[in-house]
Amino acid sequence: MLANLLLMAYIATEPNYDEAKVPGYTLPDLLTFADGQPVAQASDWPARRAEILELFETEVYGKTPEIQLPMEVEAFAEVLNAQDGTIVQQQVILRFGEASPEVNLLIYRSKAATQPVPAFLGLNFNGNHTVRADPGICITEAWMRNNADLGVSDNRASEQGRGGQADRWAIETILNRGYALATIYYGDIDPDFDDGFQNGVHPLFNDPNREKRAADAWGSIGTWAWGLSRALDYLETDSNIDASKIAVMGHSRLGKTSLWAGTQDPRFALVISNNSGCGGAALSRRRFGETVGRINRSFPHWFCHNFNRYNGKEDQLPIDQHQLIALIAPRPVYVASAVEDLWADPKGEFLAAKHADSVYRLLGTDGLPANQMPDLDQAVMGQIGYHVRSGGHNVTLYDWERYLDFADRHLR
Ligand code: GTR
Question: For the segment 37-77, what is each residue's pLDDT rounded down to a tens digit?
Fold first, then answer.
């Protein structure tokens, strides 16, 4: 009996990696209003977009609070001559009132730049000090998942981590190509564990009179996306940066976040999802690799409570992730997969990008100029870009070079 129950539980949670076992599905139609009327022309799109956005807010990521917090900015430790005098390293602390955690923003730009430059903005997983080996980069005091390689113990970062994630950030390449790079440790905004939304910036928003959280209250992905918009608020005040040309980029859970940030905040001129998978660029209905039920069980704090309704019932979702990508239209969006990253469902990521194409075309752009998934390491770029690279779940120089090519096309 027990053995049978265990076997059933095992079957229910074992991820599917077999294309032949992907269930048949019908995607919710992008170009039909909820009342069945067709979206016939570009001028119909804003109203349809609003319907879809509301569904993502109520059923998936939760609603971003409308409260505007005051933002205090403290710049410190600017190094004008890092890397043999070729790059500028700038650090800024953002605070949102008395009880705010410190949100540390690290910015790199080329010393040679003579006018404001476009920039990539992305959250990092392990602290700003891991992005480049420089003793001057402030080490966050925020909670961090333990990591022996990066010297994180007792949930605190340490000196040992300096530069430990540098290979994910291609700083010199980005700067040489004429862009700046801005990054924040995501845990500065909201530590990534299920604490009942008591830490990070949550207490600044929580309503003390409400005992129970609303079923559509935002989860951590929403909070991290909010942090990206605050970084953009700051970049708008930085005269070295062209804030009308900010590409928001993220990997994995932070790729889900960059898509949600880019969706909600139209000031982001370009949006990049790197291996974002389930709850990001991958179609949920395929149930390939990570599924809705699995992600909600593993990370109960990432999405809103309502998302749990679709555990094992992806076909009942009123949206699917191609619609999230379409909400970014007509702004350029890039979806990148890695062939060995089956957990994130590369094919499902491609298909979501492809199915967003109808909206991009309705709005007069060339969408994603590919009918099938391109060959390995062959990027396709229209207003939607896509590649599937060799290798596994990571951000590599290959990925960055494609993002730079794509940004050159759209932001220059
Ligand atoms: C995994 C999670 C994925 C992805 C990844 C990451 O454990 O299942 O959805 O977000 O973490 O962020 O590295």
Answer: 999 999 999 999 999 999 999 999 999 999 999 999 999 88
**For the CA of 275, the nearest atom of ligand 1:** 4
Beta strands 380-381 and 384-389 are antiparallel
Is the pTM higher than 0.70? The answer reads yes
Residues identified as active-site:
252, 393
If you measure from the C-alpha of residue 185 to the centroid of ligand 1, how many angstroms do you get, rounded to a whole number?
16
Cβ neighbours for 112, distance < 8 A, ≥ 6 positions apart? 86
Contact 282 CB / ligand 1 (< 6 Å): no
Residue 167: CB atoms within 10 A of its CB come to 11
**Separation CA 393–CA 83 (nearest Å):** 29
Are the beta carbons of 193 and 301 closer than 8 angstroms?
yes
For the record, the structure tokens of 222 come out as 């929403």
Distance 344 CA to ligand 1 centre (A): 8
- Is residue 278 in contact with ligand 1, taking CB distance under 6 Å? yes
Ligand 1, residue 278: give the atom nearest the CA: 9
Q: Structural domains in the chain?
A: 72-411 (3.40.50.1820)
d(CA 262, CA 132): 26
Q: Is the pLDDT of residue 8 over 80?
A: no
258 Cα to the center of ligand 1, angstroms? 14
**In the chain, what are the helix, strand and coil shares in percent, each to the nearest 5?**
35, 20, 45
Q: Is the Cβ atom of 90 under 6 angstroms away from ligand 1?
A: no
Helix residue ranges per DSSP H, 155-298: 171-176, 186-189, 220-235, 253-264, 292-298
Residue-level pLDDT at 86: 92
Residue for token pair 């994603």: 368
Ligand 1 atom at minimum distance from 294 CA:
8
Q: In this predicted model, what pLDDT tens digit does every residue of 144-158 receive, in sequence order? A: 999 999 999 999 999
Residue whose CA lies nearest to ligand 1 atom number 8? 295
Ligand 1 pocket check for 291: Cβ under 6 Å: no
Per the CB < 8 A criterion, the answer to whether 36 and 43 are in contact is no
Q: What angle do CA 149, 154, 155 make, to 5 degrees?
A: 75
